[in-house]
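Feature request disguised as a bug report, sorry. It would help if multi-protein outputs had a clear separator. Right now it looks like this:
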Amino acid sequence: MRRSLVMTDDTARHPFRASLPPHVKSGRAPILPRHGGRRQGDRGPGRWTMTDLREFLMAYCACFLAVSAFIA
């Protein structure tokens, strides 16, 4: 008899979902760490810093140059 390492849930109706732990498929909000899940220096949702703007512009320019070089 072959036994699985993970207990399965027959009500999941899919092999992958059946192998997930109960807390993953419960649909509840995830448990955050004690410090709130934020990185040091994070200003919260919707707040852009100069570093964010600089990194976005660098990525945008790199993609623009790559597409321009491909087209030309």
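(second protein starts here, but nothing in the output says so)
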Amino acid sequence: MDDIAGDLALLGADEEAIEAWRAALAEEDGEDFAVWPENWPTVEVFLALSTQWRWTVAMSQAGAVPIPSGIDYTAIEPTLRLMGREPSPAMFADLRAMEAAALEVLTKA
């Protein structure tokens, strides 16, 4: 659980978002969440792409603030191939859906 909180922080999630994630986990009585078998390949690829996010920097009164802008799409095809998977429009669409959900959480102010 602390590994995931650390990963969220590395991806730019603020403390409020991390605490919201922890609260959501607590409400689930510590149970793991389920991933439908047909979605597991997308989850594995999404996790493999965790170091391939693009970031921009915005200036504020507090200084530079990193803002995630999304996955570097040029990394998707080689990642899939190295994982022994063929690229497909369906996988790309699923990854974009996960990316959009992650961006919603990571950029929540």
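Even a blank line would do. Unrelated, but nice: The two ends are 23 Å apart (CA to CA).
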